[in-house]
Protein 1
Amino acid sequence: MCGIVGYIGQNDTKEVLLNGLEKLEYRGYDSAGIAMLNDNGLNLFKVKGRIAALRGYVNNTIYATMGIGHTRWATHGVPSEENAHPHQSASGRFTLVHNGVIENYQDLKKEHLSDTAFVSETDTEVIVHLIDKLYGKYENTAEAFRQVISLLKGSYAIAMIDSEDQDNLYVAKNKSPLLVGLGEGFNVVASDAMATLKVTDQYLEIYDQEIVIVNRSFVEVQRLDGTVVDRKPYTAKIDASDIEKGTYPHFMLKEIDEQPFVTRKIIKEYQNENNELKLDNDIREAMKAADRIYIIACGTSYHAGLVGKEFIEKLANIAAEVHVASEFSYNMPLLSEKPLFVFISQSGETADSRSVLVKIKEMGYPALTITNVPGSTLSREADYTLNLYAGPEIAVASTKAYTAQIAVLVILAVDTAQAKGLKLDFDPMQELAIVANAMEILTDQKEAMEELVTNYLQAARNAFFIGRSADYHVCMEGALKLKEISYIQAEGFAGGELKHGTIALIEEGTPVIALATQADVNYAIRGNVQEVIARGANAMIISMKGMEQDTDAFVLPHVHELLTPLVSVVPLQLLAYYAALHRGCDIDKPRNLAKSVTVE
Ligand code: F6R
């Protein structure tokens, strides 16, 4: 993970770097640093902690016209000042930041750097020392940089300063995201366009195994063999206000509230003026041709995939399997004859999912990516892309991307059903519009959710979420939300499964949150709730209008039974939010996590 930013130009480098890092903090936030070069030499500032701490530490009197910065999510070595980037070569001449994991760093160290003293535990330090070493051989920075990059195995986005050269930044990329932003008299480098939107909306994509020389007035993209690549810039279509909190105390709350809007946007984007679905014909044909859909994702996106499987099987009549990417990658099941792989990823950069994509492409299978970031790696490398239209999701805990993924999966399944001539007994787009209204009703009832937290989760050490069928999948997501931001140990279970072991954990006062939105299992899940109450649980039921009972803690507005996950997840997101708020947790940046998980 980690975020990197670089700047070369005329303006105040310090502000561009610090602003950029603040926008990249979602990628990691356990330590940070910047290096700036001016006529007096290199100025290096590193802290353990957040960008706010770095801002306080950086000497405000320093003026520079080039620099690099980094916000870290630790992989090799604990969060500390020594392990924070930028890292410097033994001579002090070269300084670099790196996002990714160098898989062969131990080998490189043994082979080339046995006599070098290391100051950090990072894999990154190997790169910068190697550049020093090879500079001794080639006496040319660009050549030494290229030679070292050719030796690296693994993932990297790198930006490097040569202290003897105030005119060029040296940049390289493989598997980790990296863009070059173009300006008048300046250029920038960033892991994500969001970091530098304040200064430019013109960007150049950088592909894997490319090196870029970034000057104030030009940018040269080269392949590893030195051939120059001609690439046109594109305009980043991100609204700068989308990446601000506005009057909200947290991005997570803002993003929960945006769900009705996002659902309506998806309805609009995927319909033409005659209210017909408008999906790319190639996607339609690929779905029709598939004998089995393999959905690959991680975390919250995996949970959306579980819901999506139901749509694909029930509406489009195609068998579907859902797999956790990190498992599928190393333990592939027997595949059908004509599989279609559907990758679900908010960021489009998740390394575990990408590893599967690379493997199945090598095997010659087609792939569709459903993502919030259309230019992302998973989007570029798949055959087809469906956009989530959710707008940037900044809070580490995913909310609006989850519901957007489910809405797009419904549309995909409905489109396939229509293409196959299958009759549906409901109007899906009309039902999605009803869902958007229901979401709005729920986001207007925040006080009720906060009260439920007081009654059920206030002093909880652990919590269980139970449901059956579609509710079970939402319970898994509810539990993930609660644990990741409030640190309450939580599990989502199939209601019928508790009694096969886990019920042993229920004791006096254990919170159990049950979802009851599915008519055919309404009585069964209520029976499971009675079982845990009999063992002392502090249980509540969140049901759906039409199947509610007087004792239910909360009743959701009625929506089509297939689409209930889009609605029942909203109270669970809010429960997690208020539980974390009451505990004083850092809601948007929970401990140990990062938004974009670009390491396997
Ligand atoms: C949890 C969360 C994560 C992500 C997972 C996959 O709130 O956000 O579980 O869903 O890391 O990320 P993407 O969807 O970017 O592939």
Protein 2
Amino acid sequence: MIIMKFGGSSLANAERIRHVVDIIKMNIDEKPLIVLSAMGDTTDHLLEAADRAIAGKVCIKDIRKLHLATAEALEVNADVIKDLFDELKNLLSGIALIKEFSPRTKDYLVSFGERLSVRLIAGYLNRIGVEAKFFDAWDIGFTSNNDHNNGEILEESYARIDEKLGHLDSHYAFTPIITGFIAKNKSGNITTLGRGGSDLTASVLGAALRAKEIQVWKDVDGILTTDPRIVTNAQPVKNISFEEASELAYFGAKVLHPRSIIPAMCKKIPVRVKNSYNPAHPGTLILSMIDDSSEMLRVLTFKKKVTVVDIVSTRMLGQYGFLAKVFQIFDEQKVSVDMLATSEVSISVTLDNRENGIEGLRTELEKISNVTIKTGKTIVTMVGNVKRSSEILERTFEVLNASAINVQMISQGASKVNISFIVDDKEADTCIRELHRAFFENS
Ligand code: ADP
Ligand code: ASP
Ligand code: MG
């Protein structure tokens, strides 16, 4: 049994869906379970529909048109999705009426994208003679916590998923087509797992069913040496460890959902990142151990628009008391930090760009320290061979020096595969291009 997850770009229109179905058919002997995202940019279109509703206009023309045109082109009876359009319109009318769009309502709204795509594609598979059944993830045991917009799948889900679908390994009578990205909390409300969350659904499913492999199909030839939108000749990476993949996803590489690697890693299930536009390419294989110490650096990644907070002790507290108090404040304010650097009297941390909560944090921190908040920063992260970290740092500083880019904070992660530093947002693209040239384009 394998898991095959197809992202929005792989499902952009009827033609792309036919390609995806060819890929599924080629792998049918592997007993694939299919996880699907919403078609194309449907999630964004749903969010735009909410903006329009708040402004008083209920309109789902673009979403309806894409799905109905796709159903027609694939010769699928559109009755399987018409009820969902009615439900969606009712929801938007409600939003227009009360002009309120809570995190809970947002999850309910964006869930329509995945619910539409599984019905359509299961319909198409059945029409061409491949027996398929669609499932909304909550019906096969996906239960999350109450964190709307960024839910965590609860541990108890794993046994329930196994109970619902585990038997398929021996009695594989149909291909399950499962919604990515969505779940329900214990109160029965729909939740989502964060943008790009279908990767996480695939990983949880693979771990719960002890699949042979989890495949995530994208529009690139695997994990690339850096973001191809910044460096057009970024190259696919053949192998990478779970630990490295986790770091790069967490530190901004848009190719994988930040938490998606963890379930697969816990059960040691290989994850393969493949290109649905180029299925013959082997892609990237993510495994427990990578025996390749010849490479210095594997991937260069970045996260823009982060905020740096410098906290300098006023020495009212000793060092131990100071650190404890600072972290207590972060905990109370529910602010999590990505990167951290300390000296005896100061701490610098980075936070995701946030409009809310930062003034509350400042007020509390200022009771024990002098605080400087700097926005518009980028974390650049180098994921690679820690045994060669001195060489990595030496070459990095040569490049940055030559480009007159000033490093504002630096840390080497405890997982020992990442070195991160901060530059200004406006220097980020140059920094990535120059580092890519130095590490990957010169032998
Ligand atoms: P999907 O939604 O189909 O699952 P995503 O759009 O979420 O796929 O992720 C694929 C995209 O991630 C690529 O098109 C690419 O532009 C971007 N990307 C950013 N960094 C990387 C990287 N290091 N390797 C590969 N792709 C990357
Ligand atoms: N459709 C969701 C998104 O666009 C989830 C996903 O694609 O994985 O973020
Ligand atoms: Mg995505």
